[in-house]
Design brief:
Blueprint lengths: L3 H15 L25 H12 L16 H8 L8
Length: 87
């Protein structure tokens, strides 16, 4: 698996590429990216596909918990930290 800094960098890059509402200097890892409308709910499926590529495993959307996509911090915690359960 990639290093945490690489994963967080890839997540930031994806958000910046996907959104036209924020610049690199404004994006923080704890920023609520959906609540702030940086990405839309329609873009979540693209994010899931991106996460599947980064993790190398499929994500069972039926098992996802509310808040797993709240911020880059939440995404990292839920999908990349040791023992993450994707829910």
């Amino acid at each position: 698996m990639k290093a945490e800094t690489d994963i967080r960098g890839a997540l930031r890059e994806w958000v910046l590429k996907t959104s036209t509402k924020i610049t690199a200097g404004e994006l923080k890892d704890d920023m609520p990216i959906i609540e702030e409308r940086i990405i839309t709910s329609l873009q979540i499926m693209d994010l899931i596909l991106f996460l599947e590529q980064l993790t190398g495993r499929s994500i069972d959307v039926a098992q996802l918990r509310p808040g797993v996509f709240r911020s880059i911090d939440a995404i990292y915690k839920n999908f990349f930290e040791d023992g993450s359960d994707e829910r």
